[in-house]
Amino acid sequence: MRYLALESAGQCGPCLNGLPRIGAAFQTLAAPGPQGGTREDIARRAGFVEGRGACHHPDGTVRLVRSALTTFAAELDAHAAGHCTATDHSPLLPVPANRN
Description:
globular; mainly alpha
């Protein structure tokens, strides 16, 4: 999600504010440990982003976000309990560092 946030043109509110915040929230979900209301926050932000961009980039990102929350729900539950079922913790794809 952070990759998609970094790939936006940053020309409208959803891409400038919404996608980076969703990406940061997904970093919380990716690490085993307390998640608090992170999933609910992501769902709420996705609703703010969808249909409000100057292009369809935010809409496509929101579809991926919702799909990931559904598809990986069991893994997210395990992470929230402090466990990770992954056997290899190395990333599959390189994720660029945040832009300054």
